[in-house]
TrEMBL record:
Sorted UniProt keywords: ATP-binding, Carbohydrate metabolism, Kinase, Nucleotide-binding, Transferase, Xylose metabolism
EC identifiers of the protein: 2.7.1.17
Organism from which the protein derives: Aquamicrobium zhengzhouense
Encoding gene, per UniProt annotation: xylB
Protein name (record): Xylulose kinase
Cross-referenced PANTHER family: SUGAR KINASE, XYLULOSE KINASE
Amino acid sequence: MYLGLDLGTSGVKALLMDEEQEPVASASSDITVSRPHEGWSEQEPADWVRAAEDVVGALRHSHAIEIAAVRGIGLSGQMHGATLIDSAGGVMRPSILWNDTRSFEEAEALDRDPIFREVTGNIVFPGFTAPKLVWLRRHEPQIFDRVAKVLLPKDYLRFWLTGEFVAEMSDASGTSWLDVGGRQWSMQLLDKCGLELAQMPSLIEGTEVSGVLRPELASRWGMKNKVVVAGGAGDNAASACGVGAVRSGEAFLSIGTSGVLFAANDRYSPIAASAVHTFCHALPEVWHQMGVTLSAADSLSWLSAIVGSPASRLADELGDQLRAPTGVTFLPYLSGERTPHNDASIRGALTGLSHQSDREALTQAVMEGVAFSYRDCLEALKSSGTTIDRVTAVGGGSRSHYWLKAVATALEIPIDLPAEGDFGAALGAARLGLIAAEGADPVQVCSRPAMRETIEPDTSLHAAFEDAYQRYRDLYPAIRSIHS
């Protein structure tokens, strides 16, 4: 048996997988996000541990025999978070998360230094880890001066599981400290942030063994084997392992809290100016490119909270038949935007409202706005020479057929849905746990699952969606001029 632990923004999920890669059971536990100031987003690492204890405990209660047979654990996690550890191994402050934009000025300053794009192949985004540490150096020097280790969120769970300070290539790519082409920490970039190599965890590939589960945890969970913990992956690379997007040209689209359009590559080919991420993949000698929108399913959650109705009900109210855009346009920039604008200070907007703009019209506009944000990502990837002919959909938002039809029509490419089960980050993490424990072939393990159906673009609405996309595109500079 193999266990995948996925530390997301809203909770921890555990997935138990057998040697045939069939999911056996899963469990989840919620985590809250603290937003003490505008643009801030934080979590307590102790909540991650509590949630991980909850999910593994639940699986032990329901599947004790299977849990006892676990040989490998893989980790997946939300990226970019700054988790600060002192010399005694204690957490120094709440972790600053990926969608925290307080360090936008520091990010701009670092990005003006050309060495960062030259070495990392990426823009220094406000959500990345490096500008967070520069912000701390300026605003919380009493903490910065005592930092012994900087860990990414899932790597804090690894520390709790194994006692080891280890990171892996895909997650480390989002720090602005990694030489992404060379797959190693850059001492030059660390120095520019006032940090030393000793403050970084050691680096391995996602398929390698990072440590062994601490005996006290193995005993508590009834695990009988020596359990290895794989390097794992950042959430998007883990999802790619789950859906089999590990070979050049394979792609997936995630409609989660944030949104991602992800394409695997067999070579390092950065295109920083387009605000497309070029990162290491979880597999050795593989890279990937992705466009990112910061508020995907989170946009529908926002509307859900405003109208007081569950997001699933809002989606169901639209039915299955795709509608032509109404003229109401939504910009999903609730936390700023990554691709293609790299703009942390821009905020969302609803335009074209009338007396006829009811709840369904608002839901439709939100879904279309997110669909058009994926179109922006696709256009950015195209500008780099990356071709995507079809994608596999993952994430909570992919449960809405209406939303998938809107995205397929906006992108003008088909979207495949896996046949059954969960093929997201937790499964990808479990697959990495299997590879590390058994020395299995990574490409063979991370194969593409069977698909149950394909969502085709609605060609009859192509012109209407194209007109709506152009309105969407025209709104950003107009809104930007108001915010500037």
